[in-house]
Amino acid sequence: MVETITPAVCGTRKRQLLALGLFALGAVASAAALGAVLGLVGAAIGTGAALVAAVVLAVLGALREAGVVRFRIPQSRRQVPERWRAELPLPLWSTGYGAGLGLGVLTYQPVATFWVACAAALALGRPLAGTVAFALYGVGRTIVLLLPARRGADPATIVERLAGRRRTVLRANAIALGVCACLLAASPVAGARVMPLGSGNHMDPSAHASG
After folding, report:
1. Can you give the pLDDT at residue 78?
2. pLDDT tens per residue, range 46-87
3. Measured distance CA(196)–CA(107) in Å, rounded
4. How far apart (Å, rounded) are the C-alpha atoms in residues 193 and 47?
5. So what's the pLDDT on residue 153?
6. DSSP string, 57-84
7. Which of 13, 67, 127, 199 has its CA 20 to 30 A from that of 155?
8. What residues contact 87, with CB distance under 8 A and at least 6 apart?
9. pTM, whole model, 2 decimals?
10. pLDDT value at position 1?
11. CB–CB of 121/39 below 8 Å?
12. Which of 29-38, 42-51, 192-201 has the lowest mean pLDDT?
C-alpha cells in the first residue's frame, strides 16, 4: 500500500498530497464509524460477557505476539482492490483505499490488536470512546503511508525496514496487549453492579424529606 500513493503513481506531487489527504479522510471516517457501532452494540447487549471476552482475547493476543502460543487470527487475506487505481479517478480510489483499510475487517491484520480493540469497544459500551479510539486507528493507518512521503525516501526500503523489525514490533505489541488486559480487568465497567429498582429506599423521595 505504501508503494501506491507516490508521485510516480499519482502523476504529480500535488496529486499525491491530494490522495494522501483523501486516504486519511476515508481511513479515519470508516474507523471512527466502526468504533461508534461497536460501542452502540455493546451498550445494547450489555458489557459483562463482552468484557470477559476482551480480557481473554488481550491475554491470548499478548501470548501470541510473544511467541508463547500460536494460532491464526480471523482475517481476510485480501488487500484493497488494485484495479480501483486503473478504473476509478484518483479521489475515489484513494478515499476507497482509506475506507477499506480503516474498517480493518476487510483486509489483512498481521497482529491481534485490532480484534482486541473491537472486543474492548463492545465491552465498554461507549460509542464516543469507541469513535475516538478507532479514529486513532485510522490515523495510524495513514501514518504508514506518510513515512515514504518524506523527501528522498524509497517506499520499498520503508517496507523492508518494517519487515526487518517485525520481532521488535511483536514484543512491543505483546506488552501493550498485556497492559490492555490489566486496564480492562480494572476498568469501572468490570466492577460495576446494577442496583435493581425497588431494592431499597434510594428511589423513595420520602426518605430524603427534611421534615
Report:
1. 64
2. 767 788 888 998 999 899 888 898 888 776 666 677 788 888
3. 44
4. 11
5. 57
6. HHHHHHHHHTTSS--PPP-----S-TTH
7. 67
8. 93
9. 0.74
10. 55
11. yes
12. 192-201
Distance in angstroms (rounded) separating the CA atoms of residues 107 and 105: 6
Q: How far apart are CA 202 and CA 55, in angstroms?
A: 33
Alpha helices in the chain (DSSP H): 7-10, 13-45, 48-65, 84-87, 90-103, 113-124, 127-146, 155-164, 166-185, 188-191
Spatial separation of the C-alpha atoms in residues 123 and 48, rounded to whole Å:
7
Q: Find cell 466502526 and name the residue.
A: 34
Cell of 174: 505483546
Do the beta carbons of residue 4 and residue 73 sit within 8 Å?
A: no
Distance, in Å, from the CA atom of 120 to the CA atom of 85, rounded to the nearest integer, reads 35
How far apart, in Å, are the Cα atoms of 1 and each of 86, 108, 144?
15, 12, 9
